[in-house]
Design goal:
The structure is a homodimer. By secondary structure, chain A is an alpha+beta fold. The first copy, chain A, has helices at residues 3-21, 55-67, 85-94, 105-110, 115-122, 138-150; strands at 28-33, 36-42, 75-81, 98-103, 133-135. A four-stranded mixed β-sheet of chain A has the order 2-1-3-4, with helices on both faces. Chain A is globular. β5 (133-135) of chain A pairs parallel with β4 (98-103) of chain B, so a sheet runs across the interface.
Chain lengths: 157, 157
């Protein structure tokens, strides 16, 4: 069996196990570096009372802890389902080399998850979203960015 | 001063303080329920080696812990900058009543952050993204969803 298939089967196994453990939704993910799984995650939203505890987020946080880095340079992420916008964002901030996924956002939608809806909302103007996004006091917030840009000690990411 | 302005000024204050503390980027957020700030967050990406530790994610996780719930029903989130796709996704999964933000994604881009880029990638077909998103073994992952849908004890979110 190809290596990639083994990693993906592990992510899918975590997803299936999670239906039985009832810790959260049917989602699993693993992070691989240099041919080795360095972190695993399963969905812990309901077990941990944490809406951000998707399998990918859990795995990314563990992998970064293992690497002592906020970047996943040279890593691959295997997810049992296409990452939602939250997880896609986390992936882009972590900057792995590639992402492999099995089920699609449409499959997640058929299992009653909001993935497709959130992708649409992500691409909707803030003021037209189902959850109202309202801008205010922009001028005061800009000052924080100016301070950041002026600080030569800043640690960009 | 209107209440909303006070909450936002606190989020902006957290953002400004963070430039000095050098724990992460110039971003702050607070979660408000029934006229009271129940959680605060500032960006801790570099301090914690955690690419997911954006101010909104930190504040949402703390607020959920305080409420012992994976949902932020009846809450408002105040963020010093427009939430990135990761934070937007987290917000939709937490389902607060409203979001207020100050600086825009374009302002973040001018301060060298990837927010606008990640919004574009979110709206790009998976196989055309800058980080390759590759689908494989969909059939095997579907089984996890079927098990989930068949489990009458499931805890949806």
């Amino acid at each position: 069996m190809e290596e990639k298939e083994k990693y993906m089967l592990r992510a899918i196994e975590l997803a299936k196990e999670n239906v039985l453990s009832e810790d959260g939704g049917p989602f699993g993910a693993v992070v691989v570096k240099n041919g080795k799984i360095i972190a695993e995650g399963k969905n812990l939203v309901t077990a941990n009372d944490d809406p951000t505890a998707h399998a990918e987020i859990v795995a990314i946080r563990k992998a970064c802890e293992a690497l002592k880095s906020h970047q996943l340079a040279g890593c691959e992420i295997y997810a049992s389902c296409e990452p939602c916008p939250m997880c896609l964002g986390a992936i882009y901030w972590a900057r792995p080399a590639a992402v492999y996924y099995a089920a699609s956002r449409q499959d997640a939608t058929r299992a009653y998850f909001d993935d497709s809806y959130i992708y649409r909302e992500c691409n909707t103007e803030p003021e037209k979203r189902k959850i109202p996004f309202i801008q205010m006091q922009r001028d005061k917030a800009i000052e924080a960015f100016l301070r950041w840009m002026e600080n030569e000690q800043r640690n960009p990411y």
